[in-house]
Each structure stands twice: as C-alpha cells, then as structure tokens.
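sorry for the late reply, my laptop died twice this morning and i had to redo everyting from scratch. anyway the thing you sent over, i finally got around to it. pasting the sequence first so we're on the same page, its 239 residues, then the predicted structure underneath. double check i copied it right bc i was rushing
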Amino acid sequence: MPAEPAVVEARGVWREFGGVVALRDVDLAVREGEIVALIGPNGAGKTTLLNVLSCVLPPTRGQVLFRGRPLPCRPHRAARAGLTRTFQDLQLFGSLSALDNVLVAREARGKGAVPRGDADRFLETVGLARRARDHPDALPFGQRRLLELARALATEPMLLLLDEPAAGLSTPERTALAERLCGLRDVGVTVLLVEHDLELALGVADRVVVLDQGVKIADLPPDAVRGDERVIAAYLGVA
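ok and here's the structure:
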C-alpha cells in the first residue's frame, strides 16, 4: 500500500525577497499525529517557512502540498482546508470574553459556529475554563497565549502551526504550555511548532527540523539534536 501522504509537505521551497534568499531548496514533511519542532538561530527563515506553509506567502520556487494536493496560496482557503496558524502577535478580540473569543474563532474562519459546549471544552483543554467570562486584558500574558491556542483549536484543524507560542512566558507558564502541547498530540492534533525555547521544543517534539540561513541542516529525533555538530555550529557560530 502507498504511504499515507504528509499532512503538509514542502518540496524544494525557495523564498526570495528582492535579492535576499530567505529559504533555499527546503524540503519538509509533517505527518499525521506528529509534533515537529522547527528551530534555528535568529534569521534562519523559520517564520518565513511558516508563512509559506500557511499560504501567507507564495514560494518563489518549489511546491507546498496539503494532504498530497497543492493548496492555492490564499490563507482563508488554507484555513478552510484544515490548516490553522497562530502568530507571534496575539490576535484576540479585546471587547469579547474568553469564551466569546473561542465562539467566534471557528465562524470567522468559515467553518460555522462552534457549539457553546465545545467552546467550553477548548478552554478546558488549555486550562482556562475558570476564566471563560474574563476579557483578554484581564488575563496574564501567558493565559492570553493559551486563549489564542484555544481559538485555534476551535477550528478543529488537521494541522496546527504555532509561531513562538512560548514567547514572553514565565518558566511555570512554559511548563504548562509544554503539557498542553503534549495533550494535543494525545488527542490526535498534528502540530508544527516554531520555537526559540530549545528545551521546550526538544521536550515536546517527536522530530526536530533545524534551519540555518534558509537551509535545512538537520531533521532528527530530539535526543540526537544536542550532539549534532551542524546544529551546534549554527547556534554557537563555531565549527
């Protein structure tokens, strides 16, 4: 039998901005049920790759496949197909409660209204059931990050793309986030995670992909990343 197609796959993807090459011939596949961490030093091209995979940017060359088929480069089409993206900058509705933020998320992405009971469940999944009536401004920053995650889950994605979800979080909040991410895998959510926090990334990922200056230099199990000479050189700037 043929292998199950990857949920998302980049084949020979290049992305150029004028004369600057941000991604160079990148191949990447994320399969169902995986958490894949995408790491690398600043300027490695991680967010650019996430933008290409989520149809925010078209590739200059190469191809992105979703469930084995090309996906038109329109973010709303990607969302409707089952690909949901979070951003480094939180995109919450400040005038709505946490519960209402979740209720409108699914409808805003063209998937119809989410039932109230499901919205409660998504908040519970990220540990915010007790803050359902609170507005985002009343929540600590870490909990606002979790609310953004609950909004993403409300779209019932086939693939969840997370861009720096631990940015700005305290150590306890990062620990809680890691537990939530592992819980998502346990219920069958596929995740591609861009993260600067190496300990968090290695702690939750099934596989780690490393970019350096727009080039994929490694695709390894987490326990193999720490001792990989290419990865050490990329992060420390030494051969």
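Residues 93-156 form one domain.
thats about all i looked at so far, will dig more tmrw
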